[in-house]
Amino acid sequence: MRATDILKAIQKLNPSEKHRLREYLIDALTASSSTGTVLEEISERKNKDGYRCPDCESEHIVRFGKYSTIVDGEEVKKQRYRCKACRKTFTDLTNTALYRTRHLNHWMKFIECMIEGYSLRKSAELIGNITHVTLFYWRHKLLTALKQMEISNFQGIVEMDETYFLYSEKGQRKIKNRKPRKRGGSAKKRGISKEQVCVLVARDRDKVTFSQTLGMGRLTKDQLDKAIGHKLSNENVLCTDAWRAFKTYAYEKGMDIYQFKSDGKIRTKGLYHIQNVNNYHRRLKGWIQRFNGVATKYLNNYLAWFQVLESIHHQRNEITMNDMIIKGNLIPNIETYDTLRLSKFTV
Questions:
Q1: Residue 234 confidence (pLDDT) above 50
Q2: Burial of residue 88, with CB atoms counted within 10 A of its CB: 0-12 exposed, 13-18 middle, 19 or more buried
Q3: In the prediction, which pLDDT does 346 show?
Q4: Phi and psi angles of residue 173, each rounded to the nearest 5 degrees, phi first
C-alpha cells in the first residue's frame, strides 16, 4: 500500500480509532528506546567531573566489583564503586529516584503514564506487575528531584499572581479538628482564609516559570522576597494583580510595577498584562482536577510535575521521556517510602 493510500485511510478513521492508532504508533516508536542507554547517559552526566563519594564527597574512588540488574528484560552487570576515605560502596544510581528499583525495565512505560497524567491505579493497570503503591513511591521520588531543579533568573517583564488551593490532608487516616471532606469539599469561610494554601506563579515572556506554595492564607511581602527575590532585579518590570504585597515589594526593591484589578475592566496596558500567568493558573487547575484532590504536603511535587509537562508541551515521545527520566536522576534524592508517607506540609 502506498503512503498516500495510508494517509487517506487514516483520514477516514473516527476520533476514537485515531486515538488508538496514535497510542500504537507511539508505543511502537518508543519500544526501541533502551533503558540501558538512559542509564549510561545518567552515569556520564552525573560523573562528568569525575567520581565522587555520595556520602563523604571524597574523590578517592576505586572500582569494586559489579552487581546484577534487569535492563530491557535482560540481566546485565553494572559497576559498583568504593570510597577509599569512608570505605562505603555505591553505584551510579545511589541516591537517585532509580536507586534500589527492582523493575528498571518498567520505568519508560511509567514515564509515559506520568506525561499523560494518568492516576496511579490506571498506570499500574497499563504497566502490569507493579502495584499502585510502588508507583506512588516512584512518582514522588522522581518529583522530589524535579522540584529541586533551578530556574534561570527572570528577564524583562515578569507576570506574577497568586492562586489558592484548599488545604487537604488526603490520605490521612485520622484528621484532627474537622470532619473529612469528600473529593476536596469546600472551605468553611468565604474568600481567602487560613484554610487555603497560597501558590505563587511567576513567568517572564521567555516562559521561565516559578511555581511554589508559600503558606496559608494571603501572600505576604516577606514570603515573596524569600521565595523569588534572588531571581529578580530592579531591571525587571512586574505585572501583578492589585494585592498590596506586590506593590510594597516592588517599591522597596526599586522596581517598576503595573497592577490589574480582578474585575477585568482594564486587562492590558500596552505590553503589560497578566494574561499569561492567569492562563497558566487555568491550565494548572484544570489538570490537577483529574486527581480528585491533592494532599497539600505533596502539592509542590504536583506543581513541579505540571511545570515539566508545560516545558515539553505535554508531548510524549522518546526525547521528552528520556529527558524527564535523566533530569530526574541527576539530582541527589534520599527519599524513602516512609519519609514520603510520614512527611508534613511545611513552608
A1: yes
A2: middle
A3: 77
A4: -75, -35
CA distances from 51 to 48, 95, 200, 261 (A): 8, 14, 38, 54
Report the C-alpha gap between 166 and 197 in whole angstroms.
Answer: 6
**Residue 32, pLDDT score:** 42
Strands 268-269 and 157-166: unpaired
C-alpha–C-alpha distance, residues 335 and 322, integer Å: 22
Is the per-residue pLDDT at 29 higher than 60? no
Average pLDDT for 55-71: 88
3-class secondary-structure state, position 216: strand
Mean pLDDT, residues 179-185 taken together: 65
CA distance 239 to 91: 47
Between CA 165 and CA 163 the distance in angstroms is 7
What gap in Å lies between CA 46 and CA 93, rounded to an integer?
9
The pair phi, psi for residue 241, each rounded to 5°, is -80, -170
What one-character DSSP code corresponds to residue 152? P
Alpha-carbon distance of 47 to 329, in angstroms, equals 12
Does residue 176 carry a pLDDT above 80?
Answer: no
Distance set, CA 119 to CA 234, 239, 267, 295 (Å):
43, 35, 37, 14
C-alpha cell at 240: 501583578
- Are 130 and 256 contacting, i.e. CB atoms less than 8 angstroms apart? no
In the chain, the amino acid numbered 98 is: L
- 249: CB partners within 8 A, 6+ apart: 221, 224, 225, 255
Tell me if 192 sits within 8 A of 164, measured CB to CB.
yes
Q: Are 328 and 111 in contact (CB under 8 A)?
A: no
CB atoms within 10 A of CB 10: 11
Assign residue 151 a region (left: φ > 0; alpha: ψ between -120 and 50; beta: otherwise).
Answer: beta
Secondary structure percentages of the chain, helix, strand, coil, to 5 = 40, 20, 40
Residue type, 227: A
Q: Give the pairing type, strands 256-260 and 237-241.
A: parallel
